[in-house]
Amino acid sequence: MKTKAILISSMLLAGLAPAAFAQQGTVSGAAGGAVTGAIVGGPIGAAVGGVVGAVAGTAIDPPPEKVVTYVQEQPMPADTVVVQEKVVVGKPVPETVVLTPVPDSPKYSYAVVNRERVIVDPQTRTVVKVIN
């Protein structure tokens, strides 16, 4: 009975820990993944969880508030690019989408796709934030 309670607690923690650490970036993602992996799978789980957490933390690291504010304040163009794919965080925008650099923040560009403003990593074209 005690083993069952520990297993259920571990599974619940495994489900919650990645969400808690997702917004903290690579270091926190790695730490959270390692802790979760250790609880669920011992030392091997810690190693695997650390790698998975680091990747997840890197993928969804949000842009600074000044970048978000800058993009929100830009005028909406009269004609926007329309793509068939849904624009989501973590996925690249198509090559047909023209990216506009964010001044003083070379790590970020933006575009308006399907009438939504998106902030993008210009090196990988990966969406880091969708602004509705």
UniProtKB/TrEMBL annotation:
It comes from the Bacteria. Residues 1-22 form the signal peptide. Keywords: Signal. The keyword Signal applies. InterPro entries: DUF1236 (IPR009642). Pfam families: DUF1236. This is DUF1236 domain-containing protein. It comes from Neorhizobium lilium.
